[in-house]
Amino acid sequence: MKLANAIVKNRKIILIITLVLLIPSILGIVKTRVNYDMLTYLPSDMETVKGQDELLKEFNKGAFTFLIFENMSDKDVAKLKGEIESIDHVATVLWYDSLADLSIPMELLPAKVYNEFNTDHSTMMAVFFDTGTSDDHTMEAVREIRKTCGEQCLVSGMTALVVDLKDLCEKEEPVYVGLAVAFALCAMLLLLDSWLIPFVFLASIGIMIVINLGTNYFLGEVSYITKALSAVLQLAVTMDYSIFLWHSYNEQRTKYDENKKAMAVAIHETFASVLGSSITTVAGFIALCFMSFTLGRDLGIVMAKGVLLGVIGCVTVLPALILWLDKPLQKTKHKSLIPDMKKFSNGIVKIFPAFLILFVLLIAPAYNGYSKANKEVYYDMGQCLPEDMNYVTSVKKLRDDYNIASTHMILLNADVPAKDVRNMTKEMEAVDGVKYVLGMESLVGSRVPKEFIPEDVMKLVKSENYQLLLINSEYVVASDAVNQQIETLISIMKKYDPSGMLIGEAPCMKDMIETTDRDFKVVNIISILAIFLIIFFVEKSLSLPVILIAVIELGIFINLGMPHYLGQSMSFITPICISTIQLGATVDYAILMTTRYKNERIGGAEKKKAVHTALHTSIPSILVSGLGLFAATFGVALYSDMEIISSMCLLMARGALISMVLVIFILPAMFMLCDKVICKTTIGMK
Question: Phi/psi at 541 (nearest 5 deg)?
Answer without folding.
Answer: -145, 145
